[in-house]
Amino acid sequence: MGTSQRHPFDGVYGLGRHREDIRLRRGGEDFTVSADIAFVGDIHGNLSALRGLCDVLTARGGPHAIFLGDYINKGAQSAEVVKELLGYAGSGHATLLRGNHEAALLDALDTGDLTAFLKMGGAMTIRSYVGAKVGPDVLSDFRASFPNEHLDGMRHMPETCESNDFIARHTPPSASTRKYRISAHLVVGKLPRIGPSSAQLDTGCGSDDGRLTALLWPSLDYVQVDAHGSIVTG
Fold it and tell me: What CA–CA distance (Å, rounded) separates 40 from 195?
């Protein structure tokens, strides 16, 4: 996985220096996590990238991970990605925010209209749940194969997570806030776009040459893996 030239765990942010936990709000819920956080960009059905990135984060001390949405579509393993992420969240190690692709999936199941979902790569997600042999009644097969646990998990994903210092959501937060703004959604190339007031973390995961990126808070360093889950070093 690639890193910038900054070193996230030295100096005042070193692992050996105790800092206060961070109080967060997601949806209407307040909770507390360790001071070190990793914000993760779009995954889009790439299980190898997800596992590779989580291995790197674990080696760095296991910061609380805030996933910024778009876990499904494009890649071939959306069902497996969602299952793994719900496990992380259930253990208290992660917060899952809802992306526009999850919102489109819920809308398709609620309305019975798959048109918009299919236009954004939903066929790959349907295949990952139903299997290779999707029958003529695609919607019925999809509904029958979609676990209630996944449905409930997506319905309860908040859109925003914030502290006194930052606000994170799938789509870019309003620039009117004074908090540091963290988002995904808009592909910015192979490297994340990290500035003094905001960061955008969608680096194309789900495509053959895309990368999965995590922004490390509060250092504003980042780490990356490629589509195979291998660390990017340059």
Answer: 16
Count other Cβ atoms within 10 Å, centred on residue 32. Answer: 10
* C-alpha closest to that of 42 among 3, 69, 81, 77: 69
DSSP-assigned states of every residue in 37-64: EEEE---TT-HHHHHHHHHHHHHTT-PE
User: How many CB atoms sit inside 10 A of residue 171's CB?
Assistant: 13
Residue 197 corresponds to which tokens in the numbers above? 């007031």
Burial of 233 (0-12, 13-18, 19+ CB in 10 A): exposed
Instruction: Specify whether the CB–CB gap between 68 and 38 falls below 8 A.
Output: no
Question: Which residues does 47 contact at the CB level (< 8 Å), separation at least 6?
Answer: 75, 77, 80, 81, 84
pLDDT higher than 80, residue 1:
no
CA–CA distance, 124 with 210 (Å, rounded to integer): 17
37 beta partners: 64, 217
pLDDT tens sequence across 196-227: 999 999 999 999 999 999 999 999 999 999 99
Residue 56 in contact with residue 38, Cβ under 8 Å? no
232 CA to centre of own chain: 18
Rounded average pLDDT over 100-119: 97
What predicted TM-score, i.e. pTM, was given to this entire model? 0.89
- At a CB cut-off of 8 Å and minimum separation 6, what does 137 contact? none
